[in-house]
Amino acid sequence: MTSTPSSNSASRDKNSPAPSSRTSVEADTADVPTTSIPTPYVSDKADDSSKLRTFLSILRKQCNWEVEDKSPAIVGDGPKVSASGEINTDHRTVRISYLTEQTSHHPPVSAFWVDCPVKGVSACGFDQLSAKFTGTTVRVTPGAHNLGIFINIQHRDNEEYRLTHPAAQLAGILRGTLSITVADTCYITCPKSRIKVILHYLEEGWLGKAQNRVLGVVFHYDPDNDTTTKIKDVSEKDVLARLEGCWQDQVRYTLKDSKDSQLLIDLNPLWPTPKIIPPENQQLPTESRRFWHGVTEAILNKQYGQATKVKQELEERQREKATARKDHGVEFEPRFFTQALMSNGKPELNDEGRRALKGLQENNFHLAENATTDT
């Protein structure tokens, strides 16, 4: 999303990226100098990342993005249309809405939903991180309940694509020169079209500049017998295209039986679109920016002792509420989603969640306070 966003009366966060697995607290502290990471937020035990997971957990958040649809179509010529095929969105402002809620506290898991009705595209999933501090690096992997991002494309007969997450390494903590590397394999699958993608992020060498290389293959697969996990094991007769490039620069693809590569994506001109959020005084007590405001403010002011104190106070209040619910036999229920966790990794919106998303599409951020979930 690189277009200039249209004006709006709601406040805009000019430093915030488009939808990602980062939480609002993490996004709010993204500008903290990398040499000043407070140790209380990273456990010193290799098998205990509870402090980091707690700090990165989401309570609740809602926002919009608005972009002008002026980029050329990826494939083919002609006007770009909506999911229904009736609305030409070329050079029109398109609104994307995002709703997330922490649905489980132990373990900390958040459900999210992204919706762009005019394009007929939606995405959902559970956000859970597992972070392991090894002494020199932090390895971040998807948690047990994070089974990927599920993208639905309405105008393609509701095709659903599942994107899994690769593991990442955060290095340079001791030196104060943070760097992120990815060396893993992830997958994109669509059972309806019977197409699968394997993406292999290559491990960096010990010497020289990081290459950030990624290789991939697009091929036909059998959803009922999905056993192929490595690029080398893909039968040549099933290959549709191959991918190669740098995941921080350009990625190109080559169709089967062709020697000419084509540009798939160029990340260089892309820039995060500011998100539109309600003013803090209009947010509910459990919305992330308001809830974590004291912690975020202290970190940005480099008052790490105060940040730790405020964080611990917030966590203690949450424990007290959980204990009170348990004593009264009250089970925690999400406000916007039907269940706290789903075995298939796909959260489901309840009636209130659907109303909230509809309100966001109408640029209405108002949510009535709920005595059960917002206190």
Question: What layout of secondary structure does this protein have?
Answer:
Blueprint: E1 11-13, H1 24-28, H2 50-56, E2 60-68, E3 93-105, E4 108-116, E5 121-127, E6 129-133, E7 138-142, E8 149-153, E9 159-163, E10 168-171, E11 179-182, E12 185-190, E13 195-201, E14 213-220, E15 239-246, E16 250-255, E17 262-266, E18 275-277, H3 288-291, H4 293-300, H5 304-327, H6 351-361
Antiparallel strand pairs: 1-18, 2-3, 3-4, 4-5, 5-8, 6-7, 7-10, 8-9, 9-12, 10-11, 12-13, 13-14, 14-15, 15-16, 16-17
Q: Can you describe what's shown?
A:
The chain has helices at 24-28, 50-56, 288-291, 293-300, 304-327, 351-361; strands spanning 11-13, 60-68, 93-105, 108-116, 121-127, 129-133, 138-142, 149-153, 159-163, 168-171, 179-182, 185-190, 195-201, 213-220, 239-246, 250-255, 262-266, 275-277. The chain has 375 residues and is α+β, with helices and mostly antiparallel strands. A hairpin with a 7-residue loop joins β10 (168-171) and β11. α4 packs antiparallel against α5 (304-327). The longest helix has 24 residues, at 304-327. Mean pLDDT is 80; it is low at 1-9 and 14-58.
Keywords:
375 residues, 6 helices, 4-stranded antiparallel sheet, 12-stranded antiparallel sheet, disordered N terminus, 30% strand
